[in-house]
Design brief:
5-stranded antiparallel β-sheet, WCX_dom, globular, CBASS_pafABC_assoc_protein, Alpha-Beta Plaits, WYL_dom, single chain, alpha+beta
């Protein structure tokens, strides 16, 4: 906070409020955040229940190394004793956490290779209706957004094409159209057919 005050030329203590919790369960979010933060600072081993991107839940034993805030979300960099490797854990997917002891030694989280990705990046072109402008500018860089003459917003972005992409696009409902790639159009078409079957009755 002192560094931020110096940066903005304000030495007062009321110009900025930082709240790490979400809107739905602030007490639970703050408790989890504080637990993870304290484990990082005090080098405490954590036992967590975690839900991965495939929806699978399991128990992990971690040596927490550093907290990371990136793309509007908090992450924990840690060495996972359960799987024997360095991992990045999204805090919102940590369902429960408790300290279970001190770690033996402080490890260094390896720097990512700029030329290697677990999943290759794909270019996506999405067309949003004007009513979604608030979410588009919340979730995409303004330089990737092009406003069309009809008021729609054309977004060009790059993501690793993983299992979460189709679900994320569907979260915009009928206010988005996938222009490219065709494989995502096909995937969403199949998901939409299954949704129609679910809601027939």
């Amino acid at each position: 906070m002192e560094k931020l005050s110096a940066l903005f030329g304000d030495q007062g203590d009321s110009w900025l409020e930082v709240d790490f919790s979400g809107w739905e369960s602030p007490e639970l979010d703050n408790r989890k955040f504080n637990m993870v933060r304290d484990a990082v600072i005090n080098h405490r081993v954590l036992e967590i229940e975690y839900c991965n991107s495939k929806g699978e839940q399991d128990i992990r034993i971690l040596e927490p190394l550093q907290m990371l805030y990136k793309a509007r979300a908090w992450y924990l960099k840690a060495y996972c004793r359960t799987n024997g490797g360095f991992r990045l854990f999204k805090l919102s997917r940590i369902l429960s956490a408790k300290a279970v002891g001190r770690q033996v030694e402080k490890k260094c989280y390896p720097a990512p290779s700029p030329t290697e990705h677990e999943t290759p990046y794909t270019t996506f072109i999405l067309r949003f209706s004007a009513v979604m402008a608030y979410r588009v500018y919340d979730e995409f860089d303004a330089t990737s957004v092009q406003k069309e003459k009809d008021g729609t917003l054309l977004v060009t972005t790059c993501w690793p094409y993983d299992s979460w992409v189709a679900g994320y696009v569907l979260s915009f409902g009928p206010s988005v159209t996938v222009v490219e790639p065709q494989c995502l159009r096909d995937e969403i078409h199949e998901m939409a057919k299954k949704l129609c079957e679910l809601y027939k009755t």
